[in-house]
Amino acid sequence: ATPTALMVGTGRGAQLGILIKGPEVLETTRRVDTIVLDKTGTVTTGQMTLLDVIPAEGVDTEELLRLAGAVEDASEHPIAQAIAKGATARIDGALPPVEDFQNLEGVGVQGVVLDGTDSHAVLVGRPRLLADWSQALPPELESAMTAAADQGQTAVAVGWDGRARGVLVVADAVKPTSAQAIKQLRALGLTPVLLTGDNATVANAVATQVGIDPGPETVIAEVLPADKVDVIKRLQEAGRSVAMVGDGVNDAAALAQSDLGLAMGTGTDVAIEASDLTLVRGELRAAADAIRLSRRTLGTIK
Ligand code: ADP
Ligand code: MG
C-alpha cells in the first residue's frame, strides 16, 4: 500500500522536505520525549573510506586486500563498499570472483574467493565472527583494533583458511549538521539516545562529537539488527514516548515499533515504509523541523 504522503504544514513542509503519512502522526509529535538516533547513515554520513590496512605477521598486504575486497564487493553495507573500493584502488588488477557469498546481517560477510588457482574461505567482520570459527586475533591485530576504536574508527577483522589474517580500518564522518540538530531536538524537550550495532568505543566517540554524553542510558551500542526493536520496547516499558530516526534495513522493525518513526529519505525503502515521517534530504535537522512544524500545525488546527 502506498499511503498518501501529506506535506507537513503544506508550504513550509514542502520547503523543508518533510513527508508525513497521515494526520494522526501530528498528535504523536506532541508527546514524544525521547529520540533514538541510529548512528550509521543517520548521525554519520555512512560514507566510509578505507584508512588503514594491517596484515598479521607473514601475511601479504596485497593478498589481504584482494581477498577481503572480493567478498565485500558482493555486499552493499557502507563498510563493505569502502573496503571493496579501497582495495580495488590499492591492488594490481581486478578483484577476484567469489562463490557462496553470505551476508551476515550486523556481523559481517563470508564467501569463497577464487584467487587464481587457489580458493580460500574468507570471513570479514566483527572479531566475534572470526572467533566463532576459532580464528582468534593475534596480539598485533588486537592492538590494531583497539587503537582504531580509540579514535572513533571502525576496524573489522579478516580471516581465511582457519586463521585471522588482518585488520582493515574504515572511518565514517559525522554529518556536519548533526551536532546542531541534536541541540535543536533537546530544545524541543527530547532526550537523544544513540543506537548502533557498532562497538561501544566508536559509538561513544561519535556521541561525544555530536554533544551526547556517553553513558549506558544515552549510548546503546553493539545491538544486533534484530534487537534494535527490543531497545525501543524497553524504553517504552520504562514509560518513555519514543521517536526514532533511522535509514537502514536493520532499522525498519525499530522504526515501526517506535511511537514516531522518522526515516532518512536517502535511506532504504524498507525504512521509509516502516516510518511515519520521511526526511527527504536525509538530514537530521529536518527531524527537529518536522517535530516543531507538526506541533505548530496542530496548534493552528485545534
Ligand atoms: P549500524 O547499526 O551502525 O548501522 P550494522 O548493524 O550494520 O551497523 O553493523 C554492525 C557491525 O557489524 C559493524 O560495525 C561491523 O563491525 C560489522 N559488519 C556488518 N556488516 C559488515 C560487513 N559487510 N563487513 C564488515 N563488517 C561488517
Ligand atoms: Mg544505519
TrEMBL record:
GO biological process: copper ion homeostasis
GO CC annotation, single: plasma membrane
Source species, domain of life: Bacteria
UniProt subcellular location: Cell membrane
Coiled coil: none
GO molecular function, one term: ATP binding
Keyword list, A-Z: ATP-binding, Cell membrane, Membrane, Metal-binding, Nucleotide-binding, Translocase, Transmembrane, Transmembrane helix
Family: Belongs to the cation transport ATPase (P-type) (TC 3.A.3) family. Type IB subfamily.
Name this protein carries in UniProt: Cation-transporting P-type ATPase B
Part of the intact protein present: 416 to 717 of 770
